């Protein structure tokens, strides 16, 4: 899995909550797009790992626990994947394939420190 | 479950193709599982069941791409939905009494999720759907509401899909559903089989709703062809569910199923390459699905019991004449005409009169058909219906009056909404003017 010559990038999926959930058929279509996308990344050896995140959350600041406020935007982090990429530009290219982009979501791309440094 | 109507090879493949997941799984599961959950909550709290299933599907959509598809997807969805419903009722005085039942259901799901669903589990889903069908088709609801509710609750359609099938606005459908749920809540309609004294009228209401649901899918005049096909499949599926139960196993139910199967048998051939609906004589009979026609015959035979003669019997008889004729020339138009005569006596309507005129023209010539159209009662109410003018145009052509045919076909062309039908009418206009 670990390709030493390549840096790993964290792709954070930011969802914009919508008031109405899609119809069941539409949900299945969306799921299909995600499955196809992730399978492609796995087949090409780009995918390192990832998951969806549960909705529940707490923000910890100093010793105080709060339920908010969070980062000013209405977007919430819905999930993440870690990918192998040679450069930021290549990682961005991977992010552009994310199906969430078609549904009002966005992807934050962050380089990770290589383990050896 | 195998869909009752095999998919049309000419139609575009559905876009929901997901490896490892059957087509329409989410929609199908939504329809099955809302019923099983609503049965425990009662029809008055339908929304809780619907929301729980919706949440569960949303979760599946998000998690399965990362964690893979569970061994028994239905049980997974239902178990998650049970937990959502439990979260809901814990905060709710009235609902708290449902907790033991929901916990037991969640347990069942856990047991089922390790492998294939048990027959008991599947049996309970079928039973719940049947009860839900009676609740959705409650005679206190308008027929439009019954159909919208059936599509939403039992077939898993979204509001936008229902709106597209009925050529109505999404917000109109949403309002209709809100009012329908409100009725079930206020009347405390239980998700139960109707009492014996109401049985006949309640079964009739369900049959009427299924009949309209099927026709909505069958008529080729508007909408998305794949969606329409799904409506036909669902109407047949629900009809089979009804007939399989002793309460629904009535001659009229068999007659409706026969009617739907005979017409469904002709579906693959009903649209030409460009999607325009075709005249019967131009349909490719080799494309007709004889397996469906055979099922139609079985139900038609089963419908001929007792002395009840419904419009479904007569319409099934007509559909059988078309579907079972060896070729267009062998169609028994005499019999079709006599069935239409009985139908118009039992259920007079301008649409029936229009269809009867076609049969009359076949038996006694185009002039008789045109006469009957000119003098039919209630003609004004279908003057804006393009098929009236299509039929008149064709009969004028057959009568050797191309000028009059052109006038009728131009009217039809101005009234037709769907592009393929307009093209088809342009083709006929050229034919008339040649």
Protein topology:
The complex is a heterodimer of chains A (117) and B (434).
Chain A: E1 7-15, H1 24-43, E2 47-52, E3 59-61, E4 64-66, E5 76-85, H2 88-96, E6 106-111
Antiparallel strand pairs in A: 1-5, 1-6, 2-5, 3-4
Chain B: H1 25-41, H2 46-67, H3 73-90, H4 99-113, H5 119-136, H6 143-154, H7 159-166, H8 170-186, H9 199-218, H10 225-243, H11 251-270, H12 290-303, H13 311-324, H14 333-346, H15 350-364, H16 366-374, H17 386-398, H18 402-415, H19 419-433
Helix pairs in contact in B: 1-2, 1-5, 1-6, 2-3, 3-4, 5-6, 6-8, 7-8, 9-10, 9-11, 10-11, 11-12, 11-13, 12-13, 13-14, 14-15, 15-16, 16-17, 17-18, 18-19
Helicity range of chain B = 55-70%
**Helix segment tally of chain B:** 19
Q: What's the assembly state of these chains? A: heterodimer
The parts of chain A where pLDDT drops under 50 for at least 5 residues are none
Strand content of chain B: under 5%
Helix content of chain A: 10-25%
Could you tell me the radius of gyration of chain B in angstroms?
Answer: 24 Å
- Determine the N-to-C terminus distance of chain A: 18 Å
What sort of overall outline of chain B do the alpha carbons produce when their principal axes are compared?
Answer: elongated
Rg of chain A: 16 Å
**Number of DSSP strand runs of chain B:** 0
Distance between the amino and carboxyl termini of chain B? 51 Å
Query: Averaged pLDDT of chain A, please?
Result: 85
For the biggest sheet of chain B, the summary is: none
What is the overall shape of chain A? flat
Q: Which structural category fits the helices and strands of chain A?
A: alpha+beta
Q: On the 0-100 scale, what is the average pLDDT of chain B?
A: 85
User: What is the tally of helical segments of chain A?
Assistant: 2
**Total strand count of chain A, please?**
6
Main beta sheet of chain A, described? 4 strands, antiparallel
Beta-strand proportion of chain A: 25-35%
């Amino acid at each position: 899995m670990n390709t030493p010559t390549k840096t790993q990038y964290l792709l954070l999926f930011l969802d914009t909550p919508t008031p109405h959930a899609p119809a069941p058929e539409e949900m299945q279509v969306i799921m299909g797009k995600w499955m196809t996308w992730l399978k492609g990344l796995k087949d090409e050896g780009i995918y390192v790992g990832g998951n969806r995140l549960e909705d529940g959350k707490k923000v910890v600041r100093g010793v105080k626990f709060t339920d908010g406020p969070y980062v000013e935007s209405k977007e919430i982090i819905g999930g993440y994947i870690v990918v192998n990429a040679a450069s930021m530009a290549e990682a961005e290219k991977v992010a552009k394939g994310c199906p969430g982009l078609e549904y009002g979501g966005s992807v934050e791309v962050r380089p990770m420190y290589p383990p050896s440094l | 479950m195998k869909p009752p109507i095999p998919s049309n090879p000419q139609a575009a493949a559905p876009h929901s193709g997901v490896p490892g997941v059957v087509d329409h799984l989410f929609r199908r599961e939504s329809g099955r599982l809302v019923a099983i959950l609503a049965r425990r909550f009662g029809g008055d709290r339908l929304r809780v069941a619907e929301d729980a299933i919706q949440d569960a599907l949303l979760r599946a959509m998000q998690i399965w791409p990362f964690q893979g598809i569970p061994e028994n997807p239905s049980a997974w969805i239902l178990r998650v939905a049970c937990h959502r419903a439990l979260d809901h009722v814990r905060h709710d005085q009235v609902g708290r009494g449902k907790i033991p039942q929901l916990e037991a259901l969640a347990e069942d799901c856990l047991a089922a999720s390790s492998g294939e669903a048990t027959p008991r589990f599947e049996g309970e889903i079928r039973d719940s759907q049947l009860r839900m069908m009676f609740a959705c088709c409650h005679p206190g609801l308008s027929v439009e509401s019954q159909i919208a509710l059936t599509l939403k609750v039992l077939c898993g359609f979204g509001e936008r899909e229902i709106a597209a099938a009925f050529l109505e606005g999404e917000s109109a459908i949403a309002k209709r559903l809100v009012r329908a749920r409100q009725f079930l809540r206020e009347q405390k309609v239980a998700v139960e089989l109707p009492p014996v004294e109401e049985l006949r009228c309640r079964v009739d209401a369900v049959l009427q709703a299924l009949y309209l649901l099927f026709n909505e899918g069958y008529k080729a005049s508007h909408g998305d062809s794949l969606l329409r096909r799904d409506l036909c499949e669902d109407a047949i599926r629900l009809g089979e569910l009804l007939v399989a139960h002793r309460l629904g196993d009535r001659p009229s139910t068999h007659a409706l199923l026969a009617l739907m199967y005979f017409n469904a048998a002709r579906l693959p051939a009903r649209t030409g390459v460009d999607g325009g609906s075709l005249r019967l004589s131009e349909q490719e009979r080799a494309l007709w699905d004889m397996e469906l026609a055979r099922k139609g015959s079985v139900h038609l035979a089963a419908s001929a019991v007792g002395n009840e003669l419904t419009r479904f019997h007569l319409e099934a008889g007509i559909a059988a004449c078309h579907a079972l004729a060896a070729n267009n020339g062998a169609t028994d138009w005499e019999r079709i005409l006599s069935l239409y005569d009985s139908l118009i006596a039992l259920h007079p309507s301008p649409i029936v009169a229009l269809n009867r005129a076609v049969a009359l023209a076949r038996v006694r010539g185009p002039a008789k058909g045109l006469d009957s159209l000119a003098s039919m009662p209630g003609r004004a109410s279908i003057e804006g219906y393009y098929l009236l003018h299509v039929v008149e145009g064709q009969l004028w052509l057959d009568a050797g009056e191309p000028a009059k045919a052109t006038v009728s076909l131009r009217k039809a062309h101005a009234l037709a909404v769907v592009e393929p039908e307009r093209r088809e009418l342009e083709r006929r206009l050229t034919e008339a003017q040649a």
